[in-house]
Amino acid sequence: MGDNSSKVVITAAITGVLTDPARFNVPVTPDQMADAVLQSYNAGATAAHCHFRDQREGKGALPTWDLKMVGDILNAIRAKVPDMIICMSTGVMGDDISGPLGCLEAFSPEMAACNAGSLNYLKIRKDGQWAWPPALFNNPVEKVHSFLKVMTANDIIPEFECFDTGIVRSVSMYKANGMFEGDPHLSFVMGVDSGMPANPDLIPILVKELPDNAQWQVIATGPGREKIWDVHRRCVELGGNVRTGLEDTFYLPNGEDAADNGALVEAVTSIVRDVGREVASSSEAREILGIKK
Length: 293
Known about the structure:
This protein has 293 residues and is α/β, with parallel strands linked by helices. It has a single domain, classed as TIM Barrel, CATH 3.20.20.70. 36% of the residues lie in helices and 17% in strands. The strands form three sheets. An eight-stranded parallel beta barrel has the order 2-3-4-5-8-9-10-11, surrounded by six helices. A two-stranded parallel ribbon has the order 1-12. Strands 6-7 form a two-stranded antiparallel ribbon. The protein starts with 6 loop residues before the first strand and ends with a helix. The relative contact order is 0.17. The mean pLDDT is 95.
């Protein structure tokens, strides 16, 4: 294999966890999910970050860990796009993680998200009222370790989602403590109102805090339509991988609504090439990310 240092792994986050499919064009059913992954793959994505929606009528805005529902979605994706790397979401508030752990054990995806620290999940309205009741997205070390033990046992690469700078720094401590094996994979989650801002100037600081031999990407979200794409460009310039999709934004760089996941992946692919880097193929992405299955 040649030098992959200029290659960028693009991930498509195709649906998210609570976006109402009656209001936004997010995929829900197995066929819709598979079609969205195929769109994204054809546009340059080689990994799909997957949340799973309840398939019962009228419940598609709600998440599920039901093994049959999740299995039907994954089987549809793998049948339509066998080369796509699956990165399974695992995020849950609270202490009961039996749902995501059961899915990890049953389906053994190549990668899985591992939320690496806790966050007060807040949003404020213009009138000073909370947009929703303030919530704690709790990810204490014991919870993180429980996920990592199952991921290690099933040869699943953890992708550490980091909502703040201290969480980025914590991943090095997890490695030093022996909580996971192999090279670290980190995602800088930027744009959540009570987390790190979607600010391109912050990325060089975060890169300096990375553990040794880390792969990294930016997850840019939030209302700042233009800033999101500035963040992607800076990420690519500094050597990172990128993620986009209807979980993260509904807007193209020109401010127009994105028709689907494929349009967002096409936009980020254009940025990669404009910066002078190349989009990784499936085999190259597997090599870059250290995926052996």
